[in-house]
Amino acid sequence: MRHFLDFEKPIAELEGKIEELRRTTDAGGIDVADEVGKLRDKAQALLRSTYAKLTPWQKAQVARHPDRPHANDYITALIEDFTPLAGDRAYADDLAVVGGMGRFRGRAVVVLGTERGNDTESRVKHNFGMARPEGYRKAKRLMELAGRFGLPILSFVDTAGAFPGIEAEARGQAEAIARSIEAGLEAPVPFIATIIGEGGSGGAIALAAADRIVMLEHAIYSVISPEGCASILWRDAAQASTAAEALKLTADDLRRLNLVDAVVAEPLGGAHRDPEGTIAALGDRIAELLAPLVELDGATLRARRREKFLEMGRSGVI
Predict the structure, then answer these.
(1) Closest by alpha carbon to 261, among 295, 311, 203, 201?
(2) For the whole model, what pTM was predicted?
(3) Residue ranges, the chain, pLDDT below 70
(4) What's the 3-state SS for 234-275?
(5) CB environment 133-163: b (16+ within 10 A), e (fewer)
(6) Judging by DSSP bridges, how do beta strands 79-84 and 212-216 pair with one another?
(7) Residue closest to 225 by CA, chosen among 161, 132, 158
(8) Can you give the pLDDT at residue 1?
(9) What is the 3-state secondary structure (H, E, C) of the chain?
(10) Could you tell me how far CA 20 lies from the centroid of its own chain?
(11) Phi then psi dihedrals of residue 292, to 5 deg
(12) pLDDT value at residue 31
């Protein structure tokens, strides 16, 4: 069954009526095609008007939609001959961060992603996309591997943030994130990062210190979650919608602030309504952005990447 968000309830009611009429047709052979067509047009119009005026908090809900395609879906569809590589060569393998080598449209690449999982079992397995230190150390290892072999890096980010548990702090969470960011900034190869859902805090930046940062239309990217921000500022998580507005976390906001380089449109109603189309559109955009970067040498890439992030600081937006 399709999952509907709270603000989509009127749409859910219309689509429910359409499904009931279809079942009536199947059971009794009654021709209700005209009525179904009218309801479908009405549902589409309501969907279009709803998504034309989403608030930042509603966009955050869309970014977290359980049916939204995840990192493994993008890797499966876009990367041929993918070979996963495990472990940080120091402590363990963190399944919240997936990575390996493969081919993107014929070109050998290193791929990274934060994977949330799509059912209870897989979400627990991937720790809901919240990486521990060993996940960021694995990412650092793979970025360095990419540099050694001259392979472009593609990352797909979808995380609420790094795992906040005591054991993660004890194993050096902050240092691991910082080293992963450093590896991204220093990589002598093209690096394209995409925020495919939620990009939260340093846990997202660790895999997104890239030459080009892409966001899907309804993705969000911020220093803290709206709920976390509301809890700190107002001591009330119910103020999350107010916090979302203040954080400027939507793709449109971040593009205007020059913090991301490109925004990829999603199908009407969000990526979860047409995962294949979303993935294909993102693949085209990545290919377009990657083409000029592969012509540059490592020193030029590092210098431009450094200047890109320094300019964010000079402009006062971070």
Answers:
(1) 311
(2) 0.92
(3) 1, 25-32, 316-318
(4) CCCHHHHHHHHHHHCCEHHHHHHCCCCCEEECCCCCCHHHCH
(5) bbbbbbbbbbbeebbeeebbbbbbbbbbbbb
(6) unpaired
(7) 161
(8) 65
(9) CCCCCHHHHHHHHHHHHHHHHHHHHHHHCCCCHHHHHHHHHHHHHHHHHHHCCCCHHHHHHHHCCCCCCCHHHHHHHHEEEEEECCCCCCCCCCCCEEEEEEEECCEEEEEEEECCCCCHHHHHHCHHHCCCHHHHHHHHHHHHHHHHHCCCEEEEEEECCCCCCHHHHHCCHHHHHHHHHHHHHHCCCCEEEEEEEEEEHHHHHCCCCCCEEEEECCCEEECCCHHHHHHHHCCCHHHHHHHHHHHCCEHHHHHHCCCCCEEECCCCCCHHHCHHHHHHHHHHHHHHHHHHHCCCCHHHHHHHHHHHHHHHHHCCCC
(10) 35
(11) -75, -25
(12) 59
Please say whether the beta carbons of 39 and 22 come within 8 A. Answer: no
Structure tokens at 219: 């993705």
Amino acid (one-letter) located at 44:
Q
Closest CA to 243 of 264, 263, 217, 222: 222
Question: Are 152 and 107 contacting, i.e. CB atoms less than 8 angstroms apart?
Answer: yes
Q: Which residues pair with 63 in a beta bridge?
A: none
Phi, psi of 95 (to 5 degrees): -80, -5
Q: Looking at this protein, which amino acid is placed at residue 193?
A: A
Query: For residue 220, what are its two tokens?
Result: 């969000």
Extract the tokens encoding 206: 């660790």
Token pair recorded at residue 54: 């989403």
* Cα three-residue angle 51-53-59, rounded to 5 degrees: 65
Place of tokens 């203040």: 246
Please work out, in degrees rounded to the nearest 5, the angle formed at the alpha carbon of residue 295 by the alpha carbons of 84 and 284.
Answer: 60
Amino acid 30: pLDDT: 59
Looking at residue 191, its amino acid is F
The span from the CA of 79 to the CA of 74, in Å, is 8
How far apart CA 2 and CA 273 sit, in angstroms, is 9
d(CA 43, CA 64): 23
